[in-house]
TrEMBL record:
Belongs to the transposase mutator family. It comes from the Bacteria. GO terms for biological process: DNA transposition. The keyword DNA-binding applies. GO terms for molecular function: DNA binding; transposase activity. It comes from Vallitalea longa. InterPro entries: Transposase_mutator (IPR001207). Pfam families: Transposase_mut. This is Mutator family transposase.
Length: 407
């Protein structure tokens, strides 16, 4: 078996040998395969306890195998009957299926946990081999992690809250093999902040390279899942995203990420002018009002416009989506002026996917991102600092839109 992956011929053999004709037959075959893996793990553990392998007649022995005891255990595939090896001295303490333990579904959880940490199916196979001396094929790891797919679909389609004061939208890009070609795919990520000040990932969508058309489809899905209103969207500088948002949520404020805008501007500035230029620019985005910000932008253009025109052009061109945060108090500004909340999540995604240069399918990418999301969001137990004050300010600014949803 090359690289421990199942071949087409082997798959055909499994189908024939197990008389597979229905999905139930497939589950039965998987159950038998899982039982064989557990059984082999137990045999390896017994070898380790005795200090010699089975049928090794040359080793001096102080302890011997002493048959088996039958045990019925539960797995996510259903109940499985296994034969637990016994030794004459009763020294054997199985680890993979400890005594008195009836549920072994955590073995599958362990495999899924390794997958969630960014390990490839081949890496997991090697890890299980090192730990238990048993070959768990990459194909079997894929089948186990495929059990996540119904959970992901349910999570992706779950009902959402009717209003979110803040929604952050961004995309992160990966390479996926499709029909023999490696193409760029975008993972579209949306984070919402609810009326309790708590963050939540509203969904992850894998699709074509980032486009406003795809964002429009996602926003329509949010609407169909119950999101009636969003007060403020914080987004990156994708062309057409403003129109997509206004189509579905025409009353929403749209704020382009100031941090991304600054990065795009500063890349045009030479190193010797960098510190002075960035110091001058702070006067623009830290201004107390839009009028003062425009005045400081005029001064910036007078000083640097000739030398660095491209660093300033996009600010004038996109001022309508860069300026909205000036109308809000500082507490709200700090939340809406950047999409860093998604950038932080993206760092977690990159951490678990760094060992995967190319994903074999969109599904494999989505499984890994879902597990990384689940792990990251478990730490989101605190609401935004000073949320009571922020909510009071939002209620004053958007009274008619918020009040119906405040209990």
């Amino acid at each position: 078996m090359a690289n421990n992956l199942i071949t087409k011929e082997q798959a055909q053999s499994i189908i024939e040998n197990n008389d597979i004709k229905t999905p139930q037959d497939i589950m039965g075959a998987l159950k038998n395969m899982f039982k064989d893996v557990i059984q082999e793990m137990l045999e390896n553990e017994m070898d380790e306890t005795l200090g010699y392998e089975r049928y090794d007649h040359d080793q001096p022995k102080s302890n011997y195998r002493n048959g088996y005891s039958q045990k019925k255990v539960r797995s996510s595939l259903g109940e499985i009957d296994i034969d637990v090896p016994r030794d004459r001295n009763a020294d054997f303490e199985p680890k993979i299926v400890p005594k008195r333990k009836k549920d072994i579904s955590d073995i599958e959880k362990q495999i899924i946990s390794l997958y969630a940490r960014g390990m490839s199916t081949r890496d997991i196979h090697e890890q299980m081999n090192e730990l238990y001396g048993i070959n768990v094929s990459a194909d079997m790891v894929s089948r186990i992690t495929d059990k996540l797919i119904p959970t992901i679909k349910e999570w992706q389609g779950r009902p959402l809250e009717p209003i979110y004061p803040f929604v952050f939208m961004d995309a992160i890009h990966f390479k996926v093999r499709t029909e023999g070609r490696v193409i760029n795919r975008a993972a579209y990520v949306i984070i919402g902040v609810n009326l309790d000040g708590m963050k939540d990932v509203l969904g992850i969508w894998i699709g074509e390279n980032e486009s406003s058309k795809f964002w429009l489809n996602i926003l329509n899905q949010l609407s169909s899942r119950g999101v009636k209103d969003v007060l403020i969207f914080s987004v990156d500088g994708l062309s057409g995203i403003k129109e997509a948002i206004q189509t579905v949520y025409p009353q929403a404020e749209i704020q382009r990420c100031i941090i991304h805008q600054l990065r795009n501007s500063f890349k045009f500035v030479s190193y010797k002018d960098y510190k002075e230029f960035t110091r001058d620019f702070k006067e623009v985005y830290r201004a107390s009002s839009e009028d003062l910000a425009l005045l400081k932008l005029d001064e910036l253009e007078d000083k640097w416009g000739t030398k660095y025109p491209h660093a300033l052009t996009s600010w004038r061109k996109n001022w309508d989506v860069l300026c909205p945060f000036f109308k809000f108090p500082d507490d709200i500004r700090r939340i809406m002026y950047t999409t860093n909340v998604i950038e932080n999540l993206n760092r977690q995604y990159r951490k678990v996917t760094k060992s995967k240069c190319i994903f074999p399918t969109d599904t494999s990418l989505q499984k890994m991102l879902f597990l990384a999301t689940d792990k990251a969001t478990k730490k989101w137990t605190q609401r935004y600092r000073g949320w009571d004050k922020i909510l009071n300010q939002l209620t004053i600014l958007y009274n008619e839109r918020i009040t119906p949803y405040i209990g």
